[in-house]
Give the backbone structure.
Amino acid sequence: MRKALTAAALLGLGALLLSGCSGSDGDDGAKGPAASKAASKASQPAERSSQAAAPEQGFDGTWRPINDSPVETLKITGEKVVTTGELACPGSLEGVGTDKPRITLDCAKPDPARTKGTLKMKSDGSAVVIEWDGPEWGGMIDSLRRA
């Protein structure tokens, strides 16, 4: 008899605990995930606004390669381009705001692998890739991050 009462009490306690997790009228369970989704969404606009700020800058700024490159830095201001390092020279940027902005370097001692290329920016504005013109199979590729 004592075992039966203990078992019944444990079953009742278990049922009480389980019903407490799922909510008493069904709405509590819906409020929990909704509240956490709302909290999650509340933090997203701040993240998005900081990410959205980077693309608004466009290509302007100083960039450093993450691959082996003769370009130490690439500084873009509007349509003006300046590189430093082994390949230090001025240049220009055309087609900003189009699908295929083009960079042209005007070096005193040109690098045939890095004279003209197409820029592609990562969606969050943190990185840019230059696909340099080359043979029909493609040219050199430089990946750069904001400095």
